[in-house]
Design a protein that fits this description.
mainly alpha; 2 helices
């Protein structure tokens, strides 16, 4: 999750990380929030979506008998 208008953690730095992970063929997931700043989970427009996204990620990836990805 990344607020694209974050002035603490710049989106360009995150995209550099994305590129490195891709080059290493490492799986990753990202949810960009256009116009959102650093504390996007505290705002009524992005917070509920953010919490739902985290809950779905945990439900999907922390299930028992879920095979680990390399």
């Amino acid at each position: 999750m990344h607020g694209m208008a974050d002035d603490n953690v710049l989106f360009t730095h995150s995209t550099a990380l994305f590129k490195s992970l891709q080059d290493l063929r490492k799986p990753f997931e990202v949810m960009p929030y256009p116009g959102s700043k650093h504390a996007l989970m505290r705002f009524p427009n992005t917070g509920p979506h953010g919490y739902d996204t985290v809950a779905r990620f945990f439900a999907r990836t922390l299930q028992e008998n879920t095979p680990c990805r390399p």
